[in-house]
Automatic annotation (TrEMBL):
This is Zincin. GO terms for cellular component: cell surface; extracellular region; fungal-type cell wall. Transmembrane segments: none annotated. GO terms for molecular function: integrin binding; metallopeptidase activity; zinc ion binding. Residues 10-252 form the Putative peptidase domain. The lineage of its organism: Eukaryota, Fungi, Dikarya, Ascomycota, Pezizomycotina. Keywords: Glycoprotein, Signal. It holds the Pfam family HRXXH. Belongs to the ZPS1 family. InterPro entries: HRXXH, MetalloPept_cat_dom_sf, PRA1-like. Residues 1-18 form the signal peptide.
Amino acid sequence: MALLRFSLLLLGVSSVIASPARIARQESMTTTVAAATPAPTAWDEGAVKDFTIHSSCNNTEARQIKRGLDEAMELVSHARDHILRWGNSSEIYQKYFGNASTGEPIGWFEKIVNGDKAGVLFRCDNPDGNCALEADCPRMGHWRGDNATLETVICPLSYETRKSLDAMCGFGYDVANGATNFYWASDLLHRLLHVPKVGEGVVEHYAGEYDECIELAQTHPEEAVRNSDTLQYFALEVYAYDIALPGTGCAGTWTATSSEVPSATLMPSATETETPSITSAAPQMASCTALEGKTDSPVRIEGSG
Ligand SMILES: *[C@@H]1O[C@H](CO)[C@@H](O)[C@H](O)[C@H]1NC(C)=O
Ligand SMILES: *[C@@H]1O[C@H](CO)[C@@H](O)[C@H](O)[C@H]1NC(C)=O
Ligand SMILES: *[C@@H]1O[C@H](CO)[C@@H](O)[C@H](O)[C@H]1NC(C)=O
Ligand SMILES: *[C@@H]1O[C@H](CO)[C@@H](O)[C@H](O)[C@H]1NC(C)=O
């Protein structure tokens, strides 16, 4: 009886002294109780974290594609991390994206690194017959377009020409004058952006050449952040500047002539290659480049660089 009376008294006191602190404590206790038993769900069951390399690739090819994709992830995650760290205060950011907000390029890069990769396939056979379509303008690979939107074909010439990311700033490469597909990593970044599951048909070719991309940043920043070549140039430049040659990089200074004859400096030089087809094709590379970026066809002519 005495105990009961004591509790009633306490209850009375608590309702009289309703201090803000007391109310806050009651609210937080209530929240805790409500959230106590969330049903566990395997929400990402079936998630695919790796790209698929088709059985048409032999071991040698598959290993090189795998390495190239790993390097692409390294290149792209650094591009994302650079923006996350420096935002639009980065001079390199402003150079390529102007005053555009950072969310979109971060999003594309992050999507490539951590987006679901189910069905995204790289193959080495030549199902559409495009690898050898034009002998004088051999292709490095192509997105299969409507024939298989998730699929990319890597043609034999890629293995002879694409460079490892470790070679960043080597072979006379610089960002301004080099081809965006000089490295496996940036070449595969480009190919991935074509896959609608990745680029959503929004990442497109709004500008191609380096000088056009720089101009686009100032005139149409909203397109720069979804321009395939801009995303590649930016990723290459920040990787070179932050990682490969810290504080130096190899941004280069664009010269008009370099874009007209990219093959002269950026293909492995004819004298150093063993393959006759590359040698004979080299003079034609500039015209292949001319087609590159200027066609809306999903079949991209990719002879250069
Ligand atoms: C695998 O592919 C590479 C590059 O296309 C080629 O050089 C090599 O001969 C192939 N290996 C075999 C065992 O067929
Ligand atoms: C950077 O972003 C801030 C915040 O949105 C904005 O106020 C500023 O104008 C931007 N600077 C540039 C150079 O775009
Ligand atoms: C960028 O600058 C242009 C004018 O130079 C302005 O119209 C536009 O709103 C700006 N965009 C952002 C995201 O600040
Ligand atoms: C799709 O397949 C057809 C027939 O094989 C071929 O002619 C066409 O070039 C292919 N398209 C692409 C984008 O490769």
